[in-house]
Write a structure and sequence with these properties.
It comes from Radiobacillus deserti. This is VOC family protein. This protein is α+β, with helices and mostly antiparallel strands and about 110 residues long. The protein has one domain: 2,3-Dihydroxybiphenyl 1,2-Dioxygenase, domain 1. Helix content is about 20%, strand content about 30%. The strands form four sheets. It has a four-stranded mixed sheet, with helices on one face. A hairpin with a 5-residue loop joins strand 8 (about 100) and strand 9. It is globular. The protein starts with 5 loop residues before the first strand and ends with a strand. About 10% of the residues are buried.
């Protein structure tokens, strides 16, 4: 199954509560990213896109409180939304149906 073409990530640090290596492997597999730099003392890994852009996966710190009721969204842009949605569904990644966002942009959400 061919991975979709990711065009852009709006930025930010994706926090994980648990196995950072598992999260790194998931994003590398599904987003065609490469593990760039691992910084164990910061509990973070920088992942790189083929285009040279990067995103960071970081463990939640022991004293850091995350609100489990929050709704945080990271926005990714893809070359083909239908193909990307299909890829996630075929890869058993939970997704919403495709919809038009408030500004009319075709969208869908995936849940991990």
């Amino acid at each position: 199954m061919q991975r979709f073409k990711l065009k852009r990530f709006d930025g930010g640090i994706i926090k994980v509560d648990g196995d950072r290596k598992k999260a790194v492997d998931w994003y590398c597999k599904h987003f065609n990213l490469k593990e760039g730099q691992d910084i164990p003392e910061e509990e973070m890994t920088i992942l790189t896109y083929p285009s040279g852009f990067a995103m960071t996966i970081q463990n939640v710190k022991e004293d850091e409180q995350l609100d489990s009721t929050s709704n945080i969204r990271f926005c990714f842009e893809t070359a083909d939304l239908v193909e990307t949605h299909s890829y996630f569904n075929q890869s058993n990644v939970r997704t919403t149906d495709r919809y038009l966002s408030i500004d009319g942009t075709p969208s869908f959400n995936f849940l991990i």
